[in-house]
Design a protein that fits this description.
The chain is of the alpha+beta class and about 190 residues long. The protein folds into two domains: about 100 residues, Glycoprotein, Type 4 Pilin, CATH 3.30.700; about 70 residues, Dna Ligase, domain 1, CATH 3.30.1490. Helix content is about 30%, strand content about 20%. The strands form two sheets. The protein has a four-stranded antiparallel beta sheet. Strand 1 and strand 2 form a beta hairpin. Helix 1 runs parallel beside helix 2. It is globular and about 50 Å long. Pfam families: AMMECR1. This is AmmeMemoRadiSam system protein A.
Length: about 190
């Protein structure tokens, strides 16, 4: 990550704010106001995040985020925590009684960079499994996998094929057509870490 990493306290503050946002959203209440004096000024700098929720069994329960910074980091985390709980189309909205059992993971993204390649083989060669988040774009369609997805899909062929499916395209589109590809890295942290 090129940007300076967040401190332990800044990470803890963001995780606390994410949990408050999820509790408010699940209970259909507005987000509580933020007092800037209580937080590090760095948290008010522009930032892009994904907030991922896991249930008590460690299964995915929601994940929503932004690929590029368009608001202060603190607001990005709050907005995406609430959205991950309530608006991920793959899951029903989180119920208030589920909130205590959720585990929250925040991924802070670096700005995406274009990945230049000529052939499918060169694309595979240039990817860095476990390090790179990948965005595929084909006209107006796009999809991304965070670097953490490499843990479940370590094979680059499978990774790109699943990403094409997520984009709503045939799995082998990346082999048949030159797509726009961008990569980014994340600073990932979650509840329960020291």
């Amino acid at each position: 990550m090129e940007e300076q990493k967040l401190t332990k306290e800044e990470r803890a503050q963001l995780l606390r704010l994410a949990r408050q946002a999820i509790e408010a959203a699940a209970n259909r209440r507005p987000l509580p106001p933020v007092n800037p004096a209580e937080f590090s000024p760095r948290l008010f700098e522009p930032g892009a995040t994904f907030v991922t929720l896991y249930d008590e069994n460690g299964e995915l329960r929601g994940c929503i985020g932004a690929l590029e910074a368009y608001q202060p980091l603190i607001e990005d985390v709050r907005e995406h925590a609430a959205a991950a709980a309530m608006l991920d189309y793959r899951f029903p909205p989180v119920r208030p009684e589920e909130v205590p059992g959720l585990r929250i993971e925040i991924s802070r993204l670096t700005p995406p960079r274009p990945l230049e390649y000529q052939t499918p083989a060169e694309l595979i060669e240039r990817l860095r499994p476990g390090m790179d988040g990948v965005i595929l774009r084909d006209g107006p369609q796009r999809a991304t996998f965070l670097p953490q997805v490499w843990q479940k899909l370590p094979d680059p062929y499978e990774f790109l094929s699943h990403l094409c499916l997520k984009m709503g395209a045939p799995a082998n589109l990346w082999q048949r057509k030159k797509l726009q590809v961008y990569t980014y890295q994340v600073e990932e942290f979650q509840e329960g870490e020291d």
